[in-house]
Amino acid sequence: MEATIEVAGLRKHFGRTTALDGMTFTVLPGQVTGFVGPNGAGKSTTMRVVLGLDAPDEGHALVGGRPYRSLRRPLAHVGALLDAGALQPARTARDHLLWLAHSQGLGAGRVDEVLALVGLEEVARRRAGGFSLGMRQRLGIAAALLGDPPVLMLDEPFNGLDPEGIVWIRGLLRSLAAEGRAVLVSSHLMSELEDTAGHLVVVGRGRVVADVAVSELIAAASADRVTLRTADRSAAMSVLAGAGATVAASERDTLVVSGMAAGSVVRLLGAHQVPFSEVSAHRATLEEAYLELTRDAVEFKGAAR
Amino acid sequence: MSFRHVLLAEWTKLRTVRGWVAGLVAVSLAVIGLGLLFATGSTSSCSKGKVEVPCPTPPLGPDGTAVEDRFYFVSMPLDGNGSITARVNSMTGQIRLPDATPGVRNVVSGTVPWAKAGLMVKESTEQGAAYAAVMVTAAHGVRMQHDFTHDVAGGAQGVASGRPRWLRLSRTQDTITGEESPDGKRWTKVGTARLEGLPAKVRIGLFAASPGDVRVETNPLGGTAAAGRFSEVTALVDEVSVSGTTSGTWAQNDIGVDYDVDGTPHHPGRLVRSGGTFAITGVGDIAPNTTEGTVERTLTGLLIALVVAIVVAVLFVTAEYRRGLMRTTLLASPRRGRVLVAKAVVAGGVTFVAGLVGAAVTVPLAVRILRGNGIFTLPVDPLTQVRVVAGAAGVLAVSAVLALALGALFRRSAPAVIVAIVVVVVPYVLATASILPDEVARWLLRVTPAAGFAIQQSVPAYEHVISHYVPAMGYFPLPPWGGFAVLCAYAALALGLAVRRLNGRDA
Hints:
The structure holds two protein chains of two kinds. By secondary structure, chain A is α/β, with parallel strands linked by helices. Helix content of chain A is 35%, strand content 26%. The longest helix of chain A is centred in the C-terminal third of the chain and has 19 residues, at 286-304. Chain A has nine helices and 13 strands. Chain A folds into two domains: 5-212, Rossmann fold, CATH 3.40.50.300; 223-305, Alpha-Beta Plaits (2-Layer Sandwich), CATH 3.30.70.980. Chain B folds into two domains: 3-37 and 299-458 and 472-504; 67-288, Jelly Rolls. The longest helix of chain B is centred in the last third of the chain and has 37 residues, at 336-372. Chain B is elongated. The chains are: A alpha/beta, B alpha+beta. Chain A binds chain B through residues 48, 51-55, 68-69, 71-75, 80, 82-83, 85-92, 95-96, 98-100, 102-105, 143, and chain B through 1-2, 5-6, 8-10, 12-13, 16-19, 319-320, 323-325, 327-335, 506-507.
């Protein structure tokens, strides 16, 4: 089966609230796709529709080309982590995975494998009720990996993880994607996906705002912007503006130069013997790029009304 | 994902929560513990005058049923085939009514409806020996009865002045045929009875019996109580003729008569012969015993066990809703109806096993302890005992399924547990606690899931025996499997609604 998630034209209302408003995207194998947007943008609802838990008013969602509810051993097709707190507190971690394994015709051996994979062997026979949120996230990921599925969907997997845990899960997600799986990870914090996601589906108000490769998005947001620190602001401004750059003064001894690469700035200032103490080319963070994008989306929405 | 896998997953879920397993063990222990407590705590003793004696145990009929076998028998031996014919001319009697003045016997003349007189072939004069009889009754016409529990109606007319009834009873090997006639010429067959293994030598003759007068009084707290009082019947019989190999001499037996301390018989029967006319007076009845305790009364712990089973079954589903675990379950098994059915099978199955262990230990053990304490329990055949034991487990199991379905409908524990108890436990308690009018009690046990308790009734209500057949005495308005079917129908309906709700909504 192909490792994809296809979401096409999903619409869903909860009473008078529109949760999904034509949500459409495809998640491809071999990379981590970040599914980002503010809270209430429709991420979780989309995931529940893909997983056959919620029924859409319109549109359809396919996993590997098939509706989830038609899958015979679903956990062998899709692994999902929706709510790490969804545990019977009196049941041990191992027993929680054991009933899931039994439901798919898998045995206890596979349970022990995934427990080792997420680093929970030590606490496998402890009641899940006593687990920290981080341990629950690991247990939820173990459950998602149980059927060794080609498609993974994780809803906010970074929640509650300590820094070490975040590093671990980033590495895990990258390696799972590198094995050729389609990995969809939702988050409301773009920074969490830094260095992990190769592709982004950005959503707002129930629809896709942007569906782009991360590299493209950052390049677009960074543009050519150079920050310059100099003791002689007026000289620098006249030299750079004379060479065709747009220069704006920001702090007392700082200029922001647009439309000129950092190398050219340094060369020009040297040639005119203008002193400077620091030149830095600006690279937008994913967070900044995302904020810019969603701000536009909100403005666009406002204008459309 | 086969159904087997879903079942296995649900079973794994159930057995891995210690509290639920403890609940199921408690189901067994409640049945056993309370049953044995009831048995060890009960004793009985009887006195004869000032002497304490072991209580007499009722005689057993040919099939092992406990019986009442008390009547006046005027008979002669019969070797091989033969028959007896006679004409019953009248039936009169007297009945003791509740004392109008306390301590003063209030006896009126009259007959009780099932006062009976007629012809009988009986294996011997021992109590409980096999018999077949054709008879006239006071209010139920002509009947053919045999071996205590079998009763066939003949003509509806009894005897009245100037309208006698002829009866004939014929024996051919082990088949006995009863006939009736208005005039001794035109005969109508009433019925036949096969008495397996009837020996060649039997007794053949005339008999009379009159069951105690049962009166039901309304209890001031609601409900009813019954009291039985002495009655006797005297039948005038003539035109008596016996064919076959007989001795030709009549013997008289007051079968089953009790003796007072001074050795005189208590309420004796008698025969007064004048020429060819026999005036036979009889007291007592020839019928299955309906007054002693039943096996199912040892299952007193069933109600507590039921409450525990309901709680476990409800939690088995509502705990998943409470924690959001139901979504995980539906991810693993997207065919939702199957999940709920698998849950029902697992919850019902384990509850059945827990109940079966409890009841199978309790019934035989408690009956033995009771016997040791001098308390008789009406014996039942092995199949009936299996029905009582498995039926108790079945009531627990199907109620658990009903509770589980309610849990899935409400998605919350408290309302589901409360509704399950209100529809199963409460009607049963109200109906059997002797606080409601009998008709209301019967109605409750017909239309509510509590009807299922009928599966436990080991002794049927006999049409030919007047007794206090009310729920408080363990007699249900529906037959055992009919009542159980009502409970099953409720469980199936609730499960169907729960599946519909689960399928129709976002999880």
